[in-house]
Design brief:
alpha/beta, Rossmann fold, five-stranded parallel β-sheet
Length: 232
């Protein structure tokens, strides 16, 4: 099996991505980041998901993006937006955007891919049902892949070209969920919420929850993940 590095947050998209990569026959090495985010529940979810799927390796990398701030996800003072109109989520860049996060994450994944002699890096970005983040667009991924092949030994020598795999990028959230269900993904072990409560139950009101609930509704299914009382 060909080795691949996969960015695993423990959320709906990255868990579906993991199931897809395994189904495609890749030997997955998963990487998760503790980057100073408000809640550690997504780290716990990523560990659950990696254990559930039995990935070859799962590493949790510590970096502290709170040093720079600039996002509600890395700040105790900036509020996570709640109850926005789902139709407006694609317009503008919300305060939950973490500056350069995917560039930083992909750079770590790229370094590990070089060590593993892996050609494929999987990232669960999506350009349809998403919150308007600039580092989730096809143009960004194409530019990063080009850069990666200028920045690595295998890319420069032509012996091990890097491919950034984004199989979810053109899918709606409902289509992603349908794909996951066809691959027997257990979404009850995933965590997408930007602002879960002390029990790790999802708030049901942040952008991530609204998009997730919309996706399940459109897929004709019910989200099995725990939500706070009255959240749905």
């Amino acid at each position: 099996m060909a080795p691949a590095v996969l960015l695993l947050s423990g959320g709906l998209d990255s868990t579906t991505l993991l199931a897809y990569a395994l189904d495609e026959g890749f030997d997955v090495h998963a990487i998760t980041f503790r980057y100073g985010q408000r809640h550690a529940t997504e780290i716990d979810a990523a560990r659950r998901v990696a254990k559930h799927f039995g990935v070859r390796d799962h590493v949790v990398v510590d970096i502290d993006l709170r040093t720079f701030g600039g996002s509600a996800l890395t700040s105790d003072t900036l509020a996570v937006p709640k109850d926005r109109d789902v139709a407006d989520l694609e317009h503008g860049i919300p305060i939950t955007y973490v500056p350069a996060r995917n560039t930083i994450f992909l750079s770590f994944a790229l370094a590990w891919a070089e060590v593993l002699n892996a050609r494929d890096i999987f990232i669960g970005v999506n350009a349809l049902d998403y919150s308007g983040y600039p580092d989730c667009r096809p143009e960004y991924i194409a530019a990063y892949e080009r850069m990666a092949n200028f920045a690595t030994r295998g890319g420069v020598e032509g012996t091990n070209p890097i491919h950034i795999r984004t199989p979810l990028i053109d899918l709606t959230k409902a289509q992603i969920i349908a794909l996951g269900l066809s691959l027997d993904v257990d979404y009850s072990i995933t965590q997408s919420c930007y602002d879960p409560d002390a029990t790790s139950a999802a708030c049901g009101h942040c952008d991530a929850c609204l998009l997730r609930l919309k996706g399940f509704a459109e897929a004709g299914s019910r989200d099995p993940a725990p939500y706070a009382a009255g959240a749905r």
